Each structure stands twice: as structure tokens, then as C-alpha cells.
Amino acid sequence: MKNYNLTHLKELEAESIYILREVAAQFQKPAILFSGGKDSICVTHLARKAFHPAKIPFPLVHIDTGHNFPETMEFRDNLVSELGAKLIVGSVQKSIDDGRAAEEKGKNASRNAIQTVTLLDTIEEHGFDACIGGARRDEEKARAKERFFSHRDEFGQWDPKNQRPELWNIFNGKQNFGEHFRVFPLSNWTEMDVWQYIMAENIEIPSLYFAHQRDVIWRNNTWLPVSDFIQIEETEEIINKKLRFRTLGDITITGGDESDADTLAKIVEEVAAARNTERGNRADDKRSETAMEDRKKEGYF
Amino acid sequence: MEGYLDMELLRFTTAGSVDDGKSTLIGRLLYDSKSIFEDQLDQVRQTSERRGATEVDLALLTDGLKDEREQGITIDVAYRYFATPKRKFIIADTPGHIQYTRNMVTGASTANVALILIDARKGVIEQTCRHSIIASLLQIPHIIVCINKMDLVDYQQEKFDQIKNDFENFASKLDVKDVQFIPISALKGDNVVNRSDNMNWYEGSTLLYTLENIHIGSDHNHIDCRFPVQTVIRPQTDEHHDYRGYAGRIAGGVFKSGDEITVLPSGFTSKIKSIDIFEGSVIEAFAPMSVTITLEDDIDISRGDMIVRTNNQPESKQDIEVMLCWLNNKGPQPRSKYTIRHTTADAKAMIKEIRYKLDINSLHRNEIDKNISANDICRAQIRTTRPLFVDSYRKNRNTGSIILVDEGTNETVAAGMII
Ligand SMILES: Nc1nc2c(ncn2[C@@H]2O[C@H](COP(=O)(O)OP(=O)(O)O)[C@@H](O)[C@H]2O)c(=O)[nH]1
Known about the structure:
- The complex is a heterodimer of chains A (301) and B (419).
- With 301 residues, chain A is α/β, with parallel strands linked by helices.
- In chain A, 31% of the residues lie in helices and 15% in strands.
- Chain A folds into two domains: 8-193 and 289-298, 3-Layer(aba) Sandwich (Rossmann fold); 205-285, no CATH class.
- With 419 residues, chain B is of the alpha+beta class.
- The longest helix of chain B is centred in the middle third of the chain and has 15 residues, at 157-171.
């Protein structure tokens, strides 16, 4: 008999496409949370495949902290115009100006924590009932129990003890008034899977992921990019280095890794040999051992 | 690197009672297959030190959320990932005690393999029976029994043989097809990833080798063609003006373009015009692929309908016999209304009768006490407001499974396997 087997990437792809179609069918007003990072690019690519030849039936929502890499913004705008998708921007600056959120002070200040306010406000303003994100269970241990359809209460909060069991391929997106869902089609993917898939599908990603020369300073055990949003102390030295970013967050907190990987094939090789997780260089996770879980409970991505 | 794109995916669930060494075993698999990163290991090292442990406790690698880290227990299914050049693995790690049934049923629902741990000093105990019964109810295609802590019984073959024998005696009452036994020490690493020098009498493979090579090609049903429609794709653009595609994931069988099909429940027949994916059209598609099917004729089809081959159809049923696993803390209430979900279809439903409660330690059918609460398994008859198109769970896990959603709370309260 013929061998009817899928490769792991094809099986993961089929699962993610199934999830995205379930979202389109089960919710009234879903949206893709688009950060400009490789995971949300991957989700967007899968959504394009899931509804082809129709357009993606969801808008892309970008929570703009104002502290972006310029490359990410350019990439976002190009992709949106190529897809003919609708872009909705939630502005953290506006949340600050409106007094909804207060800027952190000090040398390590970032807008990472307060973007949750903007996110929840944007969800409420547009009445989104499902927000599709690119988070994966392998990213961080607080995510290992995350559901595909993750239930949030009327305050946008995540209660790890009150999640619906998910069995087989049957998903329950029914909601009570005011509640919404986060949906994670890439739950079962690892960092390696995402890179292999990007390579196999030849998906375009921001240039920041490839090794390039950049001015950086050494702080908190990582190479932080020099930008308008960072205060550099006198003792800190600006160095020009060849590096690349393994994840893309705010320019204020995303550290680079020294690297020569300037092609996808070299990146995959580098990921295979890596000795640290990709979040290892994110200052936001370093604050405490359960940093991610605490942020999630408050409604973080 | 080429080889990496060619891996298969294997999902397994782990079961064992508390302290049988489940966390240590998973930690060992991740560690010895080099799936652990330095920073994760550092965290575990620090935590081990803070707790005053002398060695790095591999079990900490799989500890999840804060609450349970503090309480030192695991309360929900956690998913872990690792890969070897041959396969990518997804572990559904289910805790050993509280909410046990519910968690194991959840983890088992998508698994190709169940790993059952036995402490070599204790042998087959009540929990072992319970885990095996659940694995058999959920029709996990393969079972690997790991007899752990062999180092504590001097790696004796007699111990292993005796436990294997006991398990086989018990399992002969169950519906399990493929069972293998491996003597291991999760702590010392014997026969997990590397062959043990301490048990030369054992001629089988290591656990990792077994996981890498177990035949999973037939785990999906490739005979009975079932295509539950998820959503209808109508681009309504100039370029694709008349395109009308039915998007879904193949739940069983192999569909080919040109196949004679019937749409349920309408009963209309047609032929498959094309099977489309993003890259173009394919000649055939099989479970679990996600595709879009177009038909020769214009038929009214919507979500919840099922496209099947005309000469091989599922049963149309409104009275459905199921083995139900109750998941919610609140048991079934008299006259409660539920939504039943089956593939992409749903209907209103009520539980007409509980036939018996199954004692999952002994398989005893209790027809007297039919009081159901969380973690109970029972046989029940469900009545739906409209017919569902079902197969037995034995025949197809996708078209043979259902969930019940409470109409009041919207929670998923029960999972069922159709008999
Ligand atoms: N001697 C020995 N001890 C083991 C072995 N596997 C686990 N243990 C110990 O048994 C205890 C319970 O293990 P753990 O992995 O936490 O069990 P779990 O509750 O099943 O996750 C720990 O103290 C482990 O170090 C083994 O193969 N040999």
C-alpha cells in the first residue's frame, strides 16, 4: 500500500490552517495580532494559504509601542499592501497621552509592560472576539499548558486554572458576553520548525533576522541596539558589531546575538546548534523566573 | 540539514503514578537528545541549589506554572517538544494524581503512543491498570511500558519478566494492539537514549530508538473518506468570480479528483472537480491534510456538512451511544441542555440515559450508582435534535468523537467516544 504520510512541517501546517479556519467559522470578529516578528509573519502566511484564493478574512492589528525598529515598520507596511489586508494600529503613545498608561522611568525603561493596556483597549474598541497570535508552547514554560483557543475573562485576563479542555480536533470558541479568546495556531511549533518552514516556503522576513553591522552597547548581558529611545550612560561604549536578532520586540529591549548567519540556511544551522533559547536575550523575561506568567495573567499577548 | 525537512511527527502521552519517575524520564529524554538550552538548564540548576539539592534535578525541566511549582505538583496537561533527525516529538505530559482521568483523556486524544511507567519495585499496581484502560478506551494505537528504576532492583531480568507477565495477563482483557516493554532507569539513563551496559539480557531497543521507529503510517484511517466542511471559500473577485471551494481537513480516507461524492445531510451527489491547496491543485489528498474541494455541480453546502464517497457513508444517528468522560467539576444535571460538537457540526443534545459507570481500576460496570462527577467515565445514550453523521471511534477517531458544551456556561463539560 502507498505510504500516506505527511512530513512534520506539512502536518503542522495542516493543523494551523485547520485552526485558522475554525477561527473564521466560530467567531464574529477575529483579528491577527501582528508584531512584525517571524512568528506573526508565519501566522499571516498560513492565513493566506488557509483562505486562498480569497483574501485573509481578518484585519492585522499592530500594537505600536513607538519604539520600533524602522525595518519592522517598513516590512509591515509592505506586507499589508501586498496582501491587500486591513491594518489597525493601536498606539501606546496615545494610551500614554490619554493617561491610560504611565511611562516607565529610568535607564531600563521599556513600554513592554504598558502595551497590555493598549492591546486590551484596542480589542474593546473594535469588539474583537478572537485575537490570533504567534505564540508557541515551546517558547517559555508558562506557555506549555496554553490552549489553542485560550479563554480570557471580561477583563482580558488569563486564568490558568479555568481553561477549557481541548480534545481531538474539536475546539470550543463559545463565549459569554464580554469575554474573548486568544488563538495560537503555532502552539505545536518550535523555533526550529518555524525557521525550517520559513526556509521551505521561502517566506520573506525583516532584514533584522539576518546578520548585519549595527551600533550596539553591552547591557544586561546582551548587545542592545543604539536608538533614539535608549539613554546611554557615560561608562557605556558604542561598538559596531556584526549581529542578528533571534526575536523582534521593542528596540529598547531586544538584544542581538553575534552572528555571521546571513542566509536562511545559515540561520537554521545556527538555531540547530544554539545553546540558548531565543527569549534568552529578551530583557522582559529576565525580571523574574515567572515574569512571563505574571504578564500573561494580566492579558499580555 | 536536508534530512531535517523530512521528519515525521509523533505525539505521545506519558502516564505514571506519582514518583514513578515521569518527570525525570521526560527530562532525561530532552537532556540526552540535546533539546535543552543552556539558559533553561541554568534556571533548573539554580532552582535545584536553592532547594538544597546536590544534583541537578532533571524533573524540574518539565515543571510548568508558578502555582504548581510552589505546591510541587502538576495540575494540567503540559506539552513539550523535542526532535531527533528522524522525528519531531510532541509530549502530552499528564500529571499523576489530581484530575487524573480528565488530563490523561485529554493528552491521549491526539496521541499515537502511550508511555506507561511502572516502578520496578512496585510492579503492576492499580494506577497502571487505570492508565492502560484509558489508553485502550482512547484507542491509542501503540503502548510502550517502561519499567523504571531498574537500578533499584539490581537490573534483574526476573523482575522485568515478572512485571511484563503481570501486565500481559491484565492487558489481555483490554483492546490494545501493540504493546512493547522496555527496562529503564530514567535517573541513570539506562535504555532511555543510550543502551544500558547493566542489562545485557535485554535484547530490545532503547526507548528513544523505539519512539523513532515505531510504525505510525497506519494510525490514520485511510479507507473511509470523510470531509467535514469547515468554511466555504468564495473570493468574489473578478479573477475568481465563480470560485466556490469547501475548506476543511480530511478526517479519513483518500479523496481523489473525479471521485463520486455525496454531501450529507442533503444527500446531493456530485463529482470532485479539484482538490486545491495554495500551491495549486493536487490529484489526491488524505488525512490529516487541510485542503479546499471544489465540485462539478453547484450545490448548497455549508459548515457542518460532510462530503463522503457515495459508496462508503457514515451512519446517520440521532441517538448516539458513547463512552463519556466527564470533565467538569459540576456533574450532569437533570434536564440539562448541551451543545454537542462533532467534527465541524453541532446540534442541541441531552443525555437520555446513563447506562453504567465504569470503574476504571477494574473495568467493573456499575449499574446501580450512576451518579457522575468530574473524572468519571460512563456509558451514556445521547439524543440530538438533528442527525449527526458518525463512525465508531474504533474506526475513526475524528468522526467518532464528540464533546458536550454546557449551554449555560459555555464550558466543555464532557468528551465522548462513539460506540
Ligand atoms: N533510583 C532511581 N530513582 C529514580 C528513577 N527515576 C526517578 N527516580 C526518582 O524518583 C523520584 C520521583 O521522580 P519524578 O520524576 O519526580 O516522578 P514523577 O512524580 O513521576 O514525575 C525522584 O526522587 C527521582 O529522582 C530511576 O530510574 N532510578
